[in-house]
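Lab meeting, item 3. Inverse folding demo.
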């Protein structure tokens, strides 16, 4: 993995943390998600003439990816309705790299080195450990179950996105078409479900959704491009370092306590990042 790809994935992780936090902070989380993805689709449509549509795009994998991403767009805000950001997000993101590593090995024969396996394990354990400080209580256990389902969705779309990007002429073209499709699909379902009233929000929510939409498509474009350049397991693991940024956002924006537990998790994640980068 080149330094450029490595740094790009970490940038995508930061963007991912920002837009997830915006969904959690927003009032009607389903409406915020719909606006976020719709704004992202609008930006993608503006970019499409510069990217182009390629005949060799794997349309079947593109359609499958749009479907998985759309389900994810509804599962995520529902999970945030039943659990804290600091509990749901680490569970949702922490399990995905392990699932992606197994899928990559069995589907495309990507066998990571011992050092990479150790790095993925460190990252996943460090990310998952963040959730231990936010134990689910009562009805919040539903948030945990949703987070586990989201982890499976993340792993699924990561593998499908990687295959689609690699089999298409342009990985970036695949990513742009993906963000157009899933945003429109999400918005249409919300329109059918909630009606036009779901999109009638105040200026603060609209501004938050615009920022989140920009961060979301940036994170997706970078991630899909990186999946065409580097092994799925390492890309997935590095992307989940976004939990570090969520921890900072939770601490300074949501006023959640930063203690020894979070510091220990951070050290473990940094160790995982180092092992993945060094590819020992």
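The presenter then showed the designed sequence:
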């Amino acid at each position: 993995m080149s330094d450029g790809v490595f740094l790009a994935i970490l940038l995508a992780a930061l963007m991912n943390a920002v837009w997830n936090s915006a969904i959690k902070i927003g009032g009607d989380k389903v409406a915020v998600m719909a606006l976020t993805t719709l704004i992202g689709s609008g930006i993608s449509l503006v970019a499409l003439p510069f990217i182009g549509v390629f005949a060799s795009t794997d349309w079947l994998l593109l359609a499958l990816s749009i479907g998985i991403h759309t389900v994810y767009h509804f599962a995520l805000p529902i999970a945030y309705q039943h659990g804290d950001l600091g509990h749901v997000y680490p569970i949702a993101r922490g399990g995905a790299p392990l699932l992606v590593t197994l899928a990559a090995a069995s589907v495309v024969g990507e066998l990571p080195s011992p050092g990479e396996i150790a790095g993925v394990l460190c990252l996943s354990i460090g990310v998952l450990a963040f959730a231990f400080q936010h134990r689910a209580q009562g009805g919040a256990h539903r948030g945990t179950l949703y987070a586990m389902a989201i982890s499976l969705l993340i792993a699924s779309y990561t593998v499908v996105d990687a295959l689609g990007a690699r089999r298409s002429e342009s990985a970036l073209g695949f990513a742009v078409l993906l963000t157009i499709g899933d945003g429109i699909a999400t918005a249409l379902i919300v329109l059918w479900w909630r009606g036009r009233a779901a999109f009638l929000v105040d200026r603060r929510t609209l501004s938050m959704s615009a920022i989140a939409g920009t961060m979301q498509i940036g994170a997706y474009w970078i991630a899909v491009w990186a999946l065409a350049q580097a092994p799925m397991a390492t890309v997935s693991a590095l992307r989940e370092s976004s939990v570090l940024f969520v921890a900072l956002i939770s601490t300074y924006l949501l006023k959640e306590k930063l203690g020894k537990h979070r510091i220990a998790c951070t050290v473990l994640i940094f160790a995982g990042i180092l092992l993945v980068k060094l590819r020992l």
